[in-house]
Write a structure and sequence with these properties.
The structure holds 2 protein chains of 2 kinds. By secondary structure, chain A is of the alpha/beta class. Chain A has helices at residues 46-53, 78-84, 101-105, 107-111, 116-129, 134-137, 147-159, 177-193, 205-211, 229-234, 236-241, 248-258, 270-287, and strands at 3-12, 20-30, 35-39, 61-66, 69-70, 85-88, 165-169, 197-201, 214-219, 222-228. The model of chain A has no long low-confidence stretch (mean pLDDT 89). Chain B has 2 domains: 1-153 and 241-275, no CATH class; 158-234, no CATH class. Chain B is built from 11 helices and 2 strands. The mean pLDDT of chain B is 86. A two-stranded antiparallel ribbon of chain B has the order 1-2. Classes of the chains: A alpha/beta, B mainly alpha. Chain A binds chain B through residues 12-17, 51, 54, 56-57, 79, 82-83, 86-87, 89, 91, 93-98, 107-108, 111-112, 157-158, 161, and chain B through 1-2, 4-5, 13, 63-64, 66-67, 70, 178, 181-182, 184-192, 195, 206-208, 210-211, 214-215, 218.
Amino acid sequence: MPIEIKNLCYSYKQGTPFEKKVLHNVNLSINDGEFIGLIGPTQSGKTTLAQHCNALIIPQKGRVVVNGCDTAEKNANLTDLRQNVGYVFQNPDYQLFAPTVGEDIAFGPVNQKLGRDEINNRVREAMEQVGLDYNIFYKRDIFALSGGQKRRAAIAGVLACRPRVMILDDVTAGLDPRGREEILAVVRKLHEEKMLTIIFISNSMDEVAMLADRIAVLDKGHIIIDDTTKSVFGEAEKLQQIGLELPEVMEITGKLREYGFKLPQTLITLDEVVELISADLQGKQVGE
Amino acid sequence: MELTKNITLGVYLPGETVIHRLDPRTKIVIASLLIFLLLMIKSYPAYGMILLFLTAVIFISGIPIRYALCGLKPMLPVLILMWFFQLFLYSSPDAHVIFSWWIFTATDAGMHMGNLISLRVFFLFGATTILTLTTSMVGLTDGMESLLNPLRKIGLPTQELVMTMVIALRFVLILAEELDKIVKAQMARGVAFDRGNFIQKTKKLFPVFLPLFINAFKRAEELIVAMESRSYTGGKGRTKMKTLHMGRVDLIAGLIMLIFSAIVILIIFTIQPQI
C-alpha cells in the first residue's frame, strides 16, 4: 500500500480567527514495507500529516493517494481504506470502550461484518501478536489493565482489522521502560515478520534511531529532511537547531571519541557501538 | 472533521477593543439586562432594536461576524424543530388556518409564535456568545463572584458556584476536542458514522460516548487533585491577584444600555400586541 502525498497544505480551524497553518506544501511518498519515522518538535504537524494518510483528515489543498485511491475523491471508499491503514492513537483511552479486552479488539472485525469464527480467529491472532495471552486476557476488564497492557490492547484492536500499513502515534509516551520495551518489540516484530509498512511518530530519538529505516523530519509544517536514518542523524546540527535531541548513543560516542576511541560519527544503535569497541579493545590486546 | 471549529460558546477571543476593556461586571450586567429584555419581547420592531444593538457591539469588538454566527450552526436543527413545534401546536381562537393535513394544522398565530421563539433563542445565544468571546475566563469568574457577593450573607457559597460554572463552560471545549479524537480513533477501526438506519446509527454512539464519559470523570478527578494540591479550599479567605475597578468607559456603557433598555421597554409597552 504505497502512500503518495503531494503538495499537501492544511490549516487548523480554517475560517475562524484561530486559524493556524499546520502543513505547508508537504511532499512525501511512503513505499510498501517501509519503516518510516516521523520526528519533529511539538506542534510541527506530525499527527496532522499522519492522519491524512488514512483519511481521518481530508486534504484541504493538495492530494493524498493511498494505493491508487485519492482520499479527497467523492466516491472513495474511506471505510475500507481506514481498515487497510490502521491508526493507533497515543492515548488508548480514546479507543477502548468495551467491557472486556476481547470485545474491544473484536470491534474492528465486527464493523467489517465478518463471521463469528473469523472474528474470533482475528482476535486471537491479534492478541498473540501483541503478547496478550488469549486465555488470560480475553475476558479481562479493560479497566484492570496496566498502562502498557492498555497500549497493547489498543494496538491489537487495530491489528484485528488486518491492516497493511500501521500508523503509530507516539505509542510509547508515558510508559515505564519495561512497557516501552515490550511495545517496541511488538512493533519491530510486526514490521519484520508481518511485513507491515510502519509509520512511526515518536518524540524519542533513540526509538526512531533503533527502528526506522528512513526518517522524515518536520518543522513548523515543512519537511526539512527526508532520508535514511543514518543520513538524518548525520545532520546533527540541523536537528539540534530545531530543538530535537540526538539519540543517546550519538552523545556517548561523541564523548568516547574525545577519549581517543576511533568511532565513526554514523553510529546510531548500541549494538554497533558495542561491537566496534570490543573489536577495538581486542585488537589492542593482541598488539600488546 | 473538526468539531471544535463551530464551538464559540466559552471561547475567549483576545482583543484590545473598548468592549474587551470594559469591566467584566459591566458586561455581565448588560448581558443579563439584554436577556431580561429578550424574555419580554414579543414583537418584531423590538427584536430589530436588539439586532441593531448586538450588531453594533460585534462591530466595535472586532469579532468576525462569520465566526460569531458559526457557533449557531450546531444549534440550527434544534431551532428548526422548535419552529415546527410552535407552528403545529400553538394556536389561538382568532387564528387563521394556513393549511391543514391529517392531524396537523398550521395557523398564522403558530407561525408567528415559532418566529418569535426562534428569534429569542437566536438572540439569547448571540448575547451570551459575545460576552464570553470578549471576556477572559478569569474576568468572568471575578465579575460573577463580585456581583453575587451580597448573596454570601444569606449563606450561598457564591465563589464555589461561580467556579463550578466557569469550569463547566471551559469543559465544553475540552470535551469537544476529546470527542474529536475519539470519533477519529473509532473511525480508524472502521465505524462509518453516516451509514445505517436509525437504530444502527444510535448503536454507533456507544463506542464514542463511553470513552468520552469515562475520560470526563477522569479529568474531573485530576482537576480536583490539581486544585487541592495548590491549596484550594473553596471561597473563604481567598484573595485576588487582580482587583476589578470600573472606569469612565463603564459609566458610558451603562448609560447607553440604560437608554437602549428604555427605548426597548417603550416599544414593548406601546407597539407590541399583548399576547
